[in-house]
Amino acid sequence: MKQSTLLFLLLGSAAGTAAAQTNVTMYGIADVGVVAERGGAAGSVSKLTSGVASGSRLGFRGTEDLGSGLAANFLLETGIAIDTGGFNQGNTAFGRQAFVGLSGGFGAVTMGRQYTPQYVTLVLADPFGTGMAGDAANLMPNTGDAASRMNNAIKYVSPNLSGFTGELAYGFGEVAGDTKAARQYGAALGYANGPIAVRLGYHNRNNDTATVTGTSTAKDTLLAMTYDFNVAKLHLGYGVNKGTNSSPLRNTANPYGSAVAPTASTDSRDMLVGVTVPFGVHTLLGSYIRKNDRTALNQDANQWALGYRYAFSKRTELYAAYARISNDNGAGYTVGSAIEAGSGDKAFNLGVRHTF
């Protein structure tokens, strides 16, 4: 029996026992769609993909009241590949998130594999929610050592104070003899009141390893804002990325077959303008992203994206999206989705997402 299967069986049997003392909830997303990718050197590809709009997942979250306003909390979440029945995030058992912690009037402290504060800021800026062909992460960086996540991380989230919230996160590098190597830390400050939401996120990643030292540190800063006009919501984002791994390419396999493989930028600026337009059961999405590579290579890129969602119910929706990237001077950015890097400069999605 595979280790991941055994874990699910054990967790499933334990949940019934734990429920008598702890409030345990099972939840998830089932998302699958048809994807058509074009423009790559390997040729066009059409496929069925799990997790196009949102990575398909199965999760367990729980809380226990410890008294005096204190609670214990945990979350275990695995990525599910509905198209094959397998697991995502490198076939790990709980590769999406896995943490435990305490919460109360002081906020919450959690420990484990968690999203970086900068990535949560990117989700706010992106009308596509970092999914579908319009995923902002096609051009804007997913920070962390695991595509938007930090391993070995301690995170603090403050209580809401008159609309203001804050986050601090620290990820241990766990390199023997060097506490700085592979270390990461991040922070965010947000404000939400009525129609406006603003968030400033930062991430710092030390690229040193046990065998390689003296490499540059990746530093990513992102300012995001949304304003809800009721008839439409405006999305804005501006990012500054400096250092090795500050703006990595999602597809590193030279997708356009260039004589000289594209180089990830070590100094760039990102700008996003987007809109969400809801009307009844329909929602229109649109965004434009500009990556300005400030290195000598000047490998800039632009992405245009359009999307549509139709809500059958509060839990089930049909979605469609199209995006196209224009690469300059040998840049190698590709149109992917919530779960894939993509293989070409344009892609179309048509799928269904159900939450439970």
The total beta strand count reads 18
Low-confidence stretches: 3-10, 13-20
Tell me the CATH superfamily. Porin
Round the Cα radius of gyration to an integer and report it: 20 Å
Overall mean pLDDT score? 94
Name of the level-1 CATH class = Mainly Beta
Summarize the model shown.
The chain is mainly beta and 356 residues long. The chain is 7% helix and 53% strand. The chain contains 2 helices and 18 strands.
Would you kindly provide a written description of the structure presented here, covering whatever features stand out?
With 356 residues, the protein is mainly beta. The protein has a single domain (24-355), classed as Porin (Beta Barrel), CATH 2.40.160. The chain is 7% helix and 53% strand. A 16-stranded antiparallel β-barrel has the order 1-3-4-6-7-8-9-10-11-12-13-14-15-16-17-18. It holds the Pfam family Porin_4.
